[in-house]
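REQUEST
  id: r-88c1
  op: predict_structure
  target: NAD(P)-dependent oxidoreductase
  payload:
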Amino acid sequence: MKVSFIGLGIMGMGMALNLADGEKDGEFRYLACDADHKALEQFKEKGIKTTTNIADTVDSDYIFLCLPNLEIVKEAILGENGLLQHLKPGQTIVDFSTISYIGATEIAETCKAKGIEFLDCPISGQRAKSMEGTLSIMCGGDEEVFNTIKPMLDRMGEQVIYMGENGSGQLTKVINNCALNICAASFSELMPVGVKLGLDAEKLGDVLMTATGSSFASQTLIPKVLEGDFEHGFSLDKAYKDMESIFEVLVKYEIPLPTLNGTMQTYQLALQSGQRDYYKQAMIRFYEDLLGVKVRKEGFE
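RESPONSE
  id: r-88c1
  status: 200
  body:
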């Protein structure tokens, strides 16, 4: 059996390295693929076969992808020189990329028409978790195929869940990400109000991180706000695609979600005010400027 992994970026690098251990254990032959020669160096050092040409992966039983966006995924699979032009019935594509729910279902339908299995398996977790093999992986597609590849997925993720038919993985991830967005937008709007009216930013942050209004977003992002840290490997601009993705679904199925709609407006205000290169907690900077305050701990310059 041959397995290939295409896309050795921030998240794909660790995942591909962990999956490569399957070759060391004698489970399959392995090929790592990326257009960037530098991304292949770690694999070459470990004696793992590499290529810069995705055409070299088309004889694989299972092809894993971790690519930046829907356009690149479509080009890699459906393009003029894409995988689907060369694959044969029975082969499987597993996509870890974060793309839209509708995009995933359309790709799956096209693949299925040619006898190719397609699973959408977006990931959740930061780069450190991808290196550790402790990501959360949410999977949509044929359940029998999922069960077949789960041992490989277990090399990359700590929580690997089958969510249902094609598109279910992407739908799960976008719902999770939008819930995070809502929580981040809520403290971004409210903390500047408290500071404007005289509350101590650090004490207010302590309450929002521990009391009933706490959330993963508040616990992880408020400490960064208090220290003036808005940098991150994943920008607000890129994260906005989750909002775009869920709104495609809401428009198609005519579903009104006022809270989510309000969060999207907060996102847009932050993007329009120059925060697009920073992370989600940078939404607070729009409201800081609006109210003329800084939500920082004492002594911060």
